[in-house]
Amino acid sequence: MATVMQKIKDIEDEMARTQKNKATAHHLGLLKAKLAKLRRELLEPSAKGGGGAGQGFDVTKSGDARVGLVGFPSVGKSTLLNKLTGTFSECYLEASRLTKVPLQCLNCLQKRQFSKAVASYEFTTLTCIPGVIVYKGAKIQLLDLPGIIEGAKDGKGRGRQGYQNTDDIEVTYECSQYVILWLPSVNDSFSIAVISTARTCNCILIVLDAIKPITHKRLIEKELEGFGIRLNKEPPNLTFRKKDKGGINFTSTVANTHLDLDTVKAICSEYRMHNADITLRYDATADDLIDVIEGSRIYMPCIYVVNKIDQITLEELEILDKLPHYCPVSAHLEWNLDGLLDKVWEYLNLTRIYTKPKGMNPDYEDPVILSSKKRTVEDFCERIHKDMLKQFKYALVWGSSAKHKPQRVGKEHELEDEDVVQIIKKV
């Protein structure tokens, strides 16, 4: 791990020293390709001696969608989870070597018990805490992920871990309000596990402190980008097809300002690909081409939740309200939590389908939830039961997707939100 981290640092230093112009585009493209490969090794280290890939948090996926709370420690993620789901997130010691802890927690620590109250002092959650929100008939799993730190994408954060075992905690100073604890360092890739779990979510909520939102926003975006998570972006509109022979064939339907044939060949050679057809349909960058070659990039919606707005002025709040993908809240005072849920529903883009048994009224209480990308009648049947398609004859649909009510459709028919569906089976 240390060798990979050193290589990453060397490449980043070289990129920082290199001027960006047409003459250096070829060299920078090669460095970016090397950097992407090294960061992939951090996230999925090669198995040696029977070892597996890097570990995330073992949280069973449940409900219709998964939303992750990501942010730095002490920005209000646990309070937000508590207010939205009623779930209490466990508090653990922040893993600096020397930590100030309120005196009332000392007895619990010595008894190997941990406070489960969400605290205002700088504790950090150790494990991933799940909660469930039932909203518009959909069950949305909300994950309170532990606070990440700057440099997690490069393997930093080893040792930034809470403690479930207090055997080695030593009290070094005590007063009427708090105690000073000496904490031994540990050696786990903690921040990597946080972002690995974030990759499994359908939507990310980046929780920011209202006092310094822009600073934290840029740092967290950099960490997530380093792990292949692309926020509020669409996959690159370019085609990459490997072939057995013929060399690199590079074509573009638009004028290109970032990529040329030499840069494309340099990036492909880094991945040991010497024969491929590449077609660009927009002015793509070297990063876009690398993302397509890597093939492991995650494109997901993201909402920037600016917490603690009760600590800023009305003028500052009006400025934040104009920024895209932002939602200002105060978790402690429960301000604008309904607005946050509305925005989460909008970004998840889920489709509610109501079932109608033959001869009965539609069931509007328990809809079948489909994603916007998989909302055909076939997807609806598979969501109910995997064997339903074997008995499927046709479906009757009422709603905005039907030309007339009811419309008889096949399994390829695409459904719209709040459609009513009745399945007719074979006799």
Largest sheet: 6 strands, mixed
The CATH C-level class name of the largest domain = Alpha Beta
How much of the sequence is in beta strands? Answer: 15-25%
Q: Characterize the overall form.
A: globular
CATH architecture of the largest domain: 3-Layer(aba) Sandwich
Question: Could you say what the CATH topology of the largest domain is called?
Answer: Rossmann fold
Quaternary structure state of the chains depicted:
single chain
* Widest beta sheet: strand line-up: 3-4-1-7-13-14
Mean pLDDT, all residues? 79
Return the string of H and E elements.
HHEHEHEEEEHEHEEEHEHEEHEHEEHEEE
Low-confidence stretches: 46-54, 91-124, 157-190
Can you give a write-up of this model?
By secondary structure, this protein is α/β, with parallel strands linked by helices. The chain has 3 domains: 2-45 and 236-296, no CATH class; 65-231, 3-Layer(aba) Sandwich (Rossmann fold), CATH 3.40.50; 350-425, Roll (Ubiquitin-like (UB roll)), CATH 3.10.20. The chain contains 11 helices and 19 strands. The chain has a 6-stranded mixed beta sheet with strand order 3-4-1-7-13-14, with helices on both faces. A 5-stranded mixed beta sheet has the order 16-15-19-17-18. A 3-stranded antiparallel beta sheet has the order 2-6-5, with no helix packed on it. The longest helix is centred in the N-terminal third of the chain and has 19 residues, at 25-43. The protein starts with a helix and ends with a strand. Residues 46-54, 91-124 and 157-190 have low confidence and may be disordered. Keywords: GTP-binding, Nucleotide-binding.
